[in-house]
Amino acid sequence: MAHLEKQGHEVTDIGPHVYDADDDYPAFCVETALRVVADEGSRGIVVGGSGNGEQIAANKVPGARAGLAWSVETAKLCREHNHAQLIGVGARMHTAEEAVEIVEAFLATEVSPEERHARRVQQLLDYERTGTPPALPEA
Ligand SMILES: O=C[C@H](O)[C@H](O)[C@H](O)COP(=O)(O)O
């Protein structure tokens, strides 16, 4: 957090503020995603053992797009191609230095201007809003 603040980011720590190996990640991740969706332009980082459950929890919030960022490249791609506002990071999967690089890559990347990526994201948004699945292409 201090590292990101030093870089000029305004950081909110949703918690947990005390380490408890037996606590449950959904509340932290859902709260993070709710805040990110409510604050356009903001980004969220949800951290856990693998990042998997954290990313799944964040994606339950309507409008949230959370990618599992397990490398610098996947961190960039989930922003560029998937317009992710959040990433899940697995604390047990990386060194602290690697995790910082992954988070920095995500924060430094903007969405791709390619129309096809926006089109695909829009299809997901439409599905979320209407409940009607995107049409399968004709065989
Ligand atoms: O996907 C979920 C996260 O990786 C959790 O951090 C993980 O499942 C926690 O596992 P445990 O309770 O065995 O430490």
From TrEMBL:
Pathway: Carbohydrate degradation; pentose phosphate pathway; D-ribose 5-phosphate from D-ribulose 5-phosphate (non-oxidative stage): step 1/1. It catalyses: aldehydo-D-ribose 5-phosphate = D-ribulose 5-phosphate. The keyword Manganese does not apply. InterPro entries: Rib-5-P_Isoase_Actino (IPR011860), RpiB_LacA_LacB (IPR003500), RpiB_LacA_LacB_sf (IPR036569). It is an enzyme of class 5 (isomerase). Pfam families: LacAB_rpiB. Keywords: Isomerase. GO terms for molecular function: isomerase activity. Its EC number is 5.3.1.6. NCBIfam families: PRK05571.1, RPI_actino, rpiB_lacA_lacB. Belongs to the LacAB/RpiB family. Homodimer. This is Ribose-5-phosphate isomerase B. It comes from Amycolatopsis bullii.
